[in-house]
Design goal:
By secondary structure, this protein is mostly helical. The chain has ten helices and no strands. 64% of the residues lie in helices and 0% in strands.
């Protein structure tokens, strides 16, 4: 009888010792699984980032250190680790979802802006492409809102436009003698090339001086050289705009409209892009295009550059819209 009781006690003791072992084994499995998932998430959030992993809230104790009397059982410690890992996993997952949502919002906003900009450029391109022909009627284009060489704007007449200098001769130059070619060459030779050392700046200013002397073919060739050789220089926008003005004053409004549109399309952030849109409208007027096309250009100018326009330019645009009977 006593042997039988001893056997029951031993059996009960062994069973009680096995329960924590089984429970501990199950929790260890959860810990291993969660830690594996956490490492996968961290690799996703911090790709290739050595030392960038999130430190666990609970760190395992050094197995070589013999602790004193533990405050909690091993099962309780493992459960705490599991809870910490679950909280970390939840936080990282939430951060990923928030980031994905922000990226989606930014993509939607960019796509909407791109569609709007493409539609505007397409409308202007259609308008510019339709200027291949037409009459050359209309008055001369107004003077620039500021000097293309960076100087102060020229004085205006009472109507707001600068009187264009009179031109004589078959080619529109100032030659009055029979030796027009000789005189023209002398005028070109008299123009000095700027010696500042900035090749792009000097090339543009020389083209400006040719335009100012009304040597339009030579000015056009020089200004084209500036835009093709130095397309990333700030003077590229100036040169393209002045090229259009040279065409316009040389009685070539079709070429002028294409030059002005190219400046707006290629250098939309250039300092002369607003001027080119304004003069594009003037070119369409000289070509006898419908007021609807002209007004569309002025509206584009105000929509894109309204806050950047000088008071003089705003007055010019308002006057031009009135002349074209824009709504």
């Amino acid at each position: 009888m006593r042997k039988h009781m001893v056997a029951l006690v031993l059996l009960a003791s062994s069973a009680m010792g096995a329960v924590p072992a089984v429970a501990q084994s199950g929790v260890e499995g959860r810990v291993s699984r969660l830690e594996s998932e956490m490492r996968a998430v961290q690799r996703k959030v911090f790709p290739g980032g050595a030392g960038q992993y999130i430190e666990p809230d609970i760190k395992p104790t050094d197995p070589n250190v013999i602790p004193g009397t533990p405050a909690n059982s091993p099962v309780a410690d493992l459960s705490t680790r599991v809870n910490a890992l679950e909280n970390q996993l939840s936080n990282v997952t939430g951060s990923i979802e928030t980031t994905q949502h922000r990226v989606q919002v930014l993509e939607d906003a960019f796509n909407a802006y791109k569609r709007s900009t493409d539609a505007r450029l397409k409308a202007l391109e259609d308008t510019a492409s339709s200027t291949g022909g037409g009459s050359n009627g209309g008055s001369g284009a107004p003077a620039p809102t500021m000097g293309d060489d960076g100087s102060a704007p020229p004085s205006r007449s009472g109507s707001g436009a600068v009187k264009q200098p009179a031109r004589s001769g078959a080619n529109g130059d100032d030659a009055t003698s029979s030796g027009g070619d000789t005189d023209r060459q002398a005028r070109i030779a008299a123009l000095q090339r700027p010696p500042s050392g900035d090749k792009a700046e000097d090339a543009y200013l020389y083209g400006y001086r040719l335009w100012q002397a009304k040597l339009y073919p030579e000015a056009e060739a020089q200004l084209k050289l500036v835009t093709t050789t130095y397309p990333k220089h700030k003077r590229a926008s100036y040169a393209q705009n002045l090229l259009g003005r040279s065409y316009l004053e040389d009685g070539k409004p079709s070429l002028a409209s294409l030059a002005f549109y190219d400046n707006y399309k290629k250098w939309p952030d250039g300092e002369r892009a607003p001027d080119s849109l304004y003069y594009l409208g003037q070119s369409l007027v000289k070509l006898g295009k419908p007021s609807a096309d002209v007004c569309k250009v002025y509206r584009e100018l105000e929509d894109v550059y309204g806050t950047k326009l000088s008071e003089t330019m705003k007055a010019d645009v308002a006057r031009a819209k009135t002349q074209s009977k824009c709504a």
